[in-house]
Every structure is written in C-alpha cells, then in structure tokens.
Amino acid sequence: MIADSDRGARYTPAVPILAVIARRWCVAVLGLALVGCAAKPLAQPSWPAPSDPMKLSRDAGFEPTDREYLTTHTHAHLDVFVDGQRVQVPGGIGIDVAAPKGIEATKTPDGSGMDYQVSVCDAPCLSELHTHTPDGLVHTESSKIDVEPHTLGQFFIEWGLRLDDSCVGEYCKPDTSVDVYLDGKKHEGNPAEIKLAPHVEVAIVIGRPPAFIPDSWSFLPGQ
Ligand SMILES: [Zn+2]
Ligand SMILES: [Zn+2]
C-alpha cells in the first residue's frame, strides 16, 4: 500500500510532470537558440597573395608589364575586418614576387608582412593594379594616360578571392553579415563594381563590426 501510494504520489500528476519536462525542454531549446544567435565567432581567414599573380592579372583584364609605368598613378585604400579584427591585405598582389630578377622583397619593420618593390624584370612581372605593402594601399600604375579607375572586383580577382553580391571570400550572406563601406558610407549593390578612384577608402566588414569603420586613409603627399 505504501508502495502504491508512494508510486501514486510520484506518478499521478503525469500531465504536470510532462508540462515541466516540456517547459524545461523549451527553455533548453531557447537557450541553444540564443547561444546560436549570439554571433558564433568567425574563423579568421588565410588570404595570402596568390602564387599565380600574372595569370590572375590577365584574368582581371590586364596585360602585365616588366616594370612600373607611372603615366597614370593613383591610389585607393582597402580595409577588411572579420569579427572586428583587421585582416591583412598582403603586399605582392598583382606582382610576380617569385620573378628571378627585378623584385626587391623586404620584411615590414613590424614584421607583419612583406614589402615588394619592382625595378625591371626579365619577363612581365607587374599588373597595373597591385599592392606593394601589406597596409591596404592599392596602386593603379599605367603606361596609358588618364586610365579609368579599375574596380574592386578586378582587385579581388587578382587576390584570388570571391567578391560579389553575396560573398567575400568564404564568407557569405545570409549566414554571415557582409557590409561594404565607401568613404565611411554603407554601399548598396555589388561591391565588385566599386571603382578604385583616387583616394577612395573601401572598408569590408564581415561579421561583428570593428569599433570604428574607417572613412578615409592618410595618403602621403603624392599618393
Ligand atoms: Zn607600384
Ligand atoms: Zn603607387
């Protein structure tokens, strides 16, 4: 009898127990959902300068040269952030850094990357659109006069990374937020079409934004 009443005490309120279990389950599910919503940290990318720069330069529509021509010489600046952390735009994009002659490579003073300068190579080693240093400065240098600004899409072809309405590299909407800013203002539309006009500042913000979104870059005199 004792066992029965004991059993009854335990099992009679079947519905309330189920309700409690259901509530707990819901709380657990809600908790998991909240954890899911609370922006899982993104893996930081590995985006070095690619190993086939002259092929990529041609893919981007350029005809590489064996030296720098400065008839047109303009600069734009690119910042990339993933979860608020700056991603390095490497030096050597659009430069055949493995060329046997004509490339001077030095480590940056802070040791964070490489600086590549070009004199005269034996074969085409330089794209019109390139980076020398790992600070986001993007150079347009051409033998032609008044060259129209190249596009961010061409630069990303040279970098070997996807760039379109949905994705920057491996980061794609809607799974990951991807925003692009032009001189500090949010840019709508395909970022590949952004023109790298003189002194333009492009900021690509993937995932959690940085504390400050740059709206300009301190170009040196003559840059
Ligand atoms: Zn240059
Ligand atoms: Zn330059």
Overview of this protein structure:
The chain has 223 residues and is an alpha+beta fold. It has two domains: 2-37; 53-206, no CATH class. 22% of the residues lie in helices and 22% in strands. The chain has four helices and eleven strands. The strands form three sheets. Strands 1, 2, 5, 6, 9, 10 and 11 form a seven-stranded mixed sheet that branches. A hairpin with a 2-residue loop joins strand 7 and strand 8 (171-172). Helix 3 runs antiparallel to helix 4 (152-159). The longest helix has 24 residues, at 14-37. The chain is globular and about 55 Å long. Mean pLDDT is 88; it is low at 1-36. The structure holds zinc ion (2 copies). Residues 73, 75, 139, 141 line the site of one zinc ion (ZN). The site of one zinc ion has 5 residues, from strand 6.
Question: What topology does this entry show?
Answer:
Layout lengths: L1 H10 L2 H24 L15 H7 L12 E11 L2 E3 L15 E5 L6 E5 L10 E2 L6 E6 L9 H8 L7 E2 L2 E2 L5 E5 L2 E2 L14 E6 L17
Parallel strand pairs: 1-11
Antiparallel strand pairs: 1-2, 1-6, 3-4, 5-6, 7-8, 9-10, 9-11
Helix pairs in contact: 3-4
The site of one zinc ion has 4 residues, from strand 1 and strand 6.
Could you list some keywords that capture this structure?
223 residues; 7-stranded mixed sheet; 22% helix; globular; 4 helices; alpha+beta; disordered N terminus; binds zinc ion; 2 domains; two-stranded antiparallel ribbon
